[in-house]
Design a protein that fits this description.
The chain is elongated. It has 134 residues and is α+β, with helices and mostly antiparallel strands. The chain has a four-stranded antiparallel sheet, with helices on one face. It has four helices and four strands.
Length: 134
Amino acid sequence: MKFPVVLHKDADSDYGVTVPDVPGCFSAGATVSEALENAQEALALHFEGVVADGEALPQAQEVDVHVANPDYAGGVWAIVDFDVTPYLGKSVRFNATLPENLLQRIDDVVKRDHRYASRSGFLATAALRELSVA
């Protein structure tokens, strides 16, 4: 899931990162790259807590939803791609039938794009994307 984040930097500080769609989730880093990597870790810790508390997982919204918020004025927007599938619960095996050409296209993407460990990961990501706009 792609979470918008906003980076802020004061003159004598590291970059601060806030994840608007995940209240209380923030991080920092000496460089932009480090700050964004640390945001991944902050999201993982936050999601572990949400699951442990039995709460609903936060859903990412478009950056446009947050741009006018004065709390984020002067910040730089970025997107952090965070895999939420480990927090969705126990995996369940099921059978699916797909056209051969479509399955080959999925396999090609999985081989090229390291965000997807498998066909299942690709299909879970696609399903989450579709469900978030429904």
